[in-house]
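Notes from the 1:1 (GR / supervisor)

We went over the backlog. Supervisor wanted to see one worked example end to end before approving the batch request, so GR pasted a single chain during the call. The sequence is below; no edits were made to it. Supervisor asked that the structure be written out right there so they could see what the output format looks like.
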Amino acid sequence: MNVASRKEADSLIAAVSVLDRAGREGVALRSISARLGLPLDRTEKLLNRHTDYFVQVGSSGSYTLNRFGKFRGASQLISGDIEKSYKATLSSMYTVGALAAAVLTSIIVAR
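Structure output shown during the call:
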């Protein structure tokens, strides 16, 4: 899943840090939300959208790092992937911007 903004990347990395310190027991969604300084619904969407990184612990409402996914719950690998994904998003945005500028320039020159 792409990381769309620096703010999202920072929130994800902060969540990784919170959950890494908690271990396998996980942390209640409300606690994660409070520690991140985000509304509860936004925190839940963020965690649920990035299932490679986070999983809900049964029906408890707590979350933990995904120890069964490709990162095996390794916080450094997860944080690195978040940064990599964010940089890929930036690169795509610059490419689209450069293409748009080239198209606009060719339209202006053609007139």
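Supervisor's comment: The chain has a mean pLDDT of 87.
Batch request approved.
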